[in-house]
Amino acid sequence: MTRLNNKVAIVTGAGQGIGKAIALRLAKEGAIVVATDITGKENETAEEIKKIGGEGMALRLDVTDGKMAEEVAKTVFNKYGHIDILVNNAGIYPFKPFLEMTFEDWYKVINVNLNGVFNVTRAVVPYMVKQKSGRIINIASLAGAVMGFAGLTHYSASKAGIVGFTRALALELARYGITVNAIAPGAISTPGAAAAGSEEQVKMMINIIPMGRLGTPEDIASAVAYLASDEASYITGALIIIDGGWSVT
Ligand SMILES: NC(=O)c1ccc[n+]([C@@H]2O[C@H](COP(=O)([O-])OP(=O)(O)OC[C@H]3O[C@@H](n4cnc5c(N)ncnc54)[C@H](O)[C@@H]3O)[C@@H](O)[C@H]2O)c1
To answer: Which of 110, 125, 165, 188 has the smallest CB count inside 10 Å?
Structure first.
């Protein structure tokens, strides 16, 4: 697979779960991948990329830190000379009933999930504008962006915000050859999701999902690779739902 040959990609939250699968998939397709995270696990992802014959590196990036995002973008541009793909994947989903929601709960989720997307996109876009090309792919969620989800008002607001941001930015950047799209995953089997939900809840979801299974991180990664490729050059401002049919039940 070579459709992303020599494209330089930055992936946030690439230490585990969906972000890691995206980083590995982009590398398999020929991209030079900069795996970023806050846990140190981004180094393991970069190691795995090398093991499969891919190219790239790991950098620490806390998406809530706009200055750090600027530094990362500068480092990547100085090393490779271009930044072609940005995948805004980092996100948290701490369940909390609205009646128990504190200011801290609310601001933390909005800060990571929504301000984080702004911070990193803001840092990367000037390079893409100069190149007159680029691909921005934002990981939203079924929750908030497509359906209501009890226990996740803060998260839902952040993910609906990502979709609004995606559409508006797509309009502003189309003239520079930059596409901006969002993906809404349904229930995907990841370390984060496993920690958030009980086995009972998983069984309940599998019963509801028409495809009869949870999604895999690779189900999301393959759509990201497509949106990042030349084959998707006329797709912008779109929201791609990947949920095994859950949202159409
Ligand atoms: N798993 C699902 O069912 C599901 C469904 C819909 C949407 N999503 C979205 O997909 C994305 C990835 O989810 P996942 O299930 O792989 O989660 P995960 O918890 O398994 O992994 C998320 C990664 O993001 C990183 N991260 C957290 N805060 C960060 C910060 N401030 N800066 C940089 N990195 C940070 C974590 O360290 C972690 O490595 C999230 O945006 C999530 O909202 C997941």
So the answer is: 110
CA of 48 to the centre of ligand 1 (A): 19
Q: Is the CB of 56 under 6 A from ligand 1?
A: no
Per-residue pLDDT of the chain (249 residues; tens, 9 = 90+): 799 999 999 999 999 999 999 999 999 999 999 999 999 999 999 999 999 999 999 999 999 999 999 999 999 999 999 999 999 999 999 999 999 999 999 999 999 999 999 999 999 999 999 999 999 999 999 999 999 999 999 999 999 999 999 999 999 999 999 999 999 999 999 999 999 888 888 999 999 999 999 999 999 999 999 999 999 999 999 999 999 999 999
Beta strands in the chain (DSSP E): 8-11, 32-37, 55-60, 85-88, 134-139, 178-185, 239-242
Which pTM was predicted? Answer: 0.99
- Decide whether any atom of ligand 1 lies within 6 Å of the 73 Cβ: no
What is the domain extent for residue 108?
8-243
Report whether residue 16 contacts ligand 1, using a CB cutoff of 6 Å: yes
Report yes or no on 2 lying in a domain.
no
The answer to whether 116 touches 165, Cβ cutoff 8 Å, is no
Total domain count for the chain? 1
C-alpha 139 – ligand 1 centre gap (Å): 9
